Amino acid sequence: MVVFITSIKKAALLLAALCMLLTIGACGAPGETGGAAVGANGANGAAGAAGAAGAAGPTGPYAPVTVTDHAGREVTIEGDVGRLVSGYYITSSVCLALGLADRLVGIEARADARPIYALAKPELLSLPSVGTARDFNLEACLELKPDLVLLPDRLRDAADTLDEMGVPVVLVNPESYEALLDMISIIGKATGETGRAARLIEWIENSRKPVDELTSGLQDRPVVYMCGTESWLTTTPRDMFQASLIDMAGGRNAAGGIDGSGRIGISYEQLIVFDPDVIIVPPEAGFGIEDVLADPLLTELPAVRNGRVYQMPAAFEAWDSPVPSFMLGVKWLLGILHPDVYTTETLRRDAAGYYGEFYGIEIDAGMID
Which of 231, 223, 232, 181 is nearest to 206 (CA)? Predict the structure, then answer.
């Protein structure tokens, strides 16, 4: 839902924002002790959350920084980003991986639905909510007096309003591998964490190389049908990020011939025509494997007939989404499609290494199957 603000309400918000800015200038934002001190405190907290990733903290002086976001907007951040708001779970995951959790003062709604928050930084669960992409709470965001706000590209109207109020906003749309890497780089630069961003990008690229090598010579590429989260009669067209996971893992997207960058609904007849070898239930689906197997209209599909319906692990993050850990989702799918080239034990080891390095936590790898 597009954020709609009447001219009267907008004027009132602008006036409120001016009052906030005057207050900040006189007294400082609550909990702050000055720009440099906030940066130091954020860095120390990040080090605890990042473990072996190395020393945290902004890399360089707090000079103005300009980035170009995914909406093509040039965004200038004046000084240290000590108060950060993330209204999108994708950018919140990036913040965690970059050691920025201690700088977050507001987060998207339904934070308690993200297991990784409770595991890596339980304090996130008690942060004020700024709503969702469909129902973004502009007033709640302003009350937090952020130095920088991270939002999905679809919230351009909210971003424009915040910009008018002097609050810099970075919009992201990571619907491709390249865009995901670019998003990490943009957020790293905007927050002074370019070094950590470079290490995270390096991990992703280094994780992809052996997968590409393993799949480059494969002759058998199973047809994969990836369900949506609400129904197994919604799926992933070719322009969605999730479609790239299928390709990287050595499969063929059943819906690869359909245009679209968002999940689409299909009929039973279309699903039967797809004739998938494998059906994948996403980690955050409102249904499970047994529901798909029990559907009497799907009994003749090869995937159902051969018991090749799987659900991506949901114990940590939505690995099918454009979060930094998505390569773990690619590797999981690789093991499902080609168990002779990649095993569950290897995935468990790789996942433990990732979360140890970038989140500073020890996961129960046995939860991955």
Answer: 181
Strand arrangement of the beta sheet that strand 148-152 belongs to = 104-107, 84-86, 148-152, 169-172
Write down the H helix ranges in the chain.
Answer: 7-27, 35-50, 89-97, 115-120, 138-143, 156-164, 177-191, 194-215, 241-248, 268-274, 289-293, 302-305, 326-337, 344-358
Q: What pLDDT is stored for residue 256 in this prediction?
A: 95
Quickly tell me which residue has 């280094």 as its tokens: 206
* Secondary structure in 3-state letters for 321-339: CCCCCHHHHHHHHHHHHCC
Q: What is the reported pTM?
A: 0.83
Plot region of 358 (φ>0 → left; ψ -120 to 50 → alpha; else → beta): alpha
Does 178 lie in the same domain as 33? yes
Check residue 275 and give its pLDDT.
Answer: 98
Q: CA-to-CA distance for 359 and 48, rounded, in angstroms?
A: 8
From the first residue on, what is the mean pLDDT of each consecutive set of 10 residues in the chain (369 residues)? 41 48 41 34 36 42 89 94 97 97 97 95 96 94 97 96 96 96 98 97 97 93 96 95 96 94 94 98 96 97 98 95 97 97 96 96 93
- What pLDDT is attached to residue 49? 39
77 near 168, Cβ under 8 Å?
A: yes
Token pair 């609550």 in the structure block, residue = 30
Domain boundary among 204, 233, 258: 204
- Could you give the CA distance from residue 88 to residue 122 in angstroms, rounded to a whole number? 17
Nearest-angstrom CA–CA distance, 127 and 130: 9
Number of structural domains the chain divides into: 2
Range of the domain at 354: 217-367
Torsion of CA 317, 179, 86, 58, to 10 degrees: 100
pLDDT at 36: 33
* Element of type H or E holding 68: strand 65-68
